[in-house]
Write a structure and sequence with these properties.
mainly alpha; two-stranded antiparallel sheet
Amino acid sequence: MFSAPSAFQRAAVPPDSREPEPRHPRPTGGGAVVTATAPDRASDPTTDPAPAKHRDAWFDNVKYLAIVLVAVAHAWEPVMDGSRTARALYMVVYAFHMPAFILVSGYFSRSFDMSPRKVKRLVSTVVVPYVLFETAYSLFRRYAGGYDDTPISLLDPLFLTWFLVALFIWRVTTPLWRSLRHPLPIAVAIGLLAVTTPEIGDDLDLQRVLQFLPFFVLGLVLRPEHFELVRRREVRVLAVPLFAGALALAYWLAPRTQLGWLYHSSSAQELDAPWWSGVVIYLAMLACALVLTIGFLALTPRRPLWFTVLGAGTICGYLLHGFLVKGAGYFGLFDRYTWLSNPVGLVVVSVVAAAAVTLLCTPPVRRALRFATEPNLDRMFRREPARR
């Protein structure tokens, strides 16, 4: 049975701090414009704060497939340690699934300008969900997981709630990034400083916020024509050998690499590496994530499919699937059924995780969860003056 050397096991970071959204018409061959009509984006804080009547099916497909990969990767964590192949698959998925989601989030945040309407929307779709779900995950860990000393703290995000903290910080700083002449190199420099600065600490998961920042800023500077380049046929063809090569490389690296580098939640020194290696590995990880993200975007179907409508509910799938994954661990499911670590079990775990997060993205769940993901805060904010 495969087992990575003890010196290279996953980083010593708390399990609950690990990781585990423009529409533009698409011309068809005949010159017609194809758009996908879907429910309002209100329940998804990763989308453009401005309301929209039409949605691009491709972007919804990207968001749905990305959130499925997030859930599947989280479900692999308790059962993959005995399999080198599973660890390699996990490494490939983790290298790009959040960068892809964050890049699309940045692209849809381009219009954020701190206007009262958009600030109110930011509070209702990011701040309130963070407070509610951070509290819920803390209580769940305390009472279901048996960790009686788990505090309810808004400064130390549990499990997957770090993304809401990051999204708030990134979006609030959007006007700054949009005003800079060369924002992307500055964002990369900030990420490099973060990976070499262990003094940042754990508050608000700032290591992740800063190390993932370049992908959000990249999304801010991208334009529709850049995505059209990604969607070209030749890029799709190249994406297949790209992922095959990435999987082969990950299989070789699996017993030699700490998974902590993939989480971007620790500095190089915290991973027992010299600071200069953190610079090299961080830049390599950025390049790897960008290339794999391009491949993922290229392979994502462009036309409306059965799951396209689910792209509007990815925030529900994201926030809720953690209770299923953590609950299975708290109640000893993976310890009781050890066959889940076998190849057949890994397939079962993957299918169940994908099916579960798919159900959590459906319109009925979005409507039922709207009180938490998009509450009506009109009474908290002043009424905007009528426009002349």
